[in-house]
Amino acid sequence: MKKGKLLYNISVTVLPFLISLLLRLWFATCRKKEHGLENRRQVVQNTSAIAVFWHYSLLYVFYHLRKDRAAVLVSASEDGEYIARLAHCLNFDTVRGSSNRRGLRALKELLAYLNNGGNAGIVADGSQGPPQVVQAGAIMLASRSGAPILPVAWSASSSFAFNSWDHTCIPKPFSRIDFFYGKPLPVPQGLDRQEIERYRKRLEDEMNALHRSAWALHGREKHYDE
Question: Could you tell me the domains of the chain?
Answer without folding.
Answer: 3-216 (3.40.1130.10)
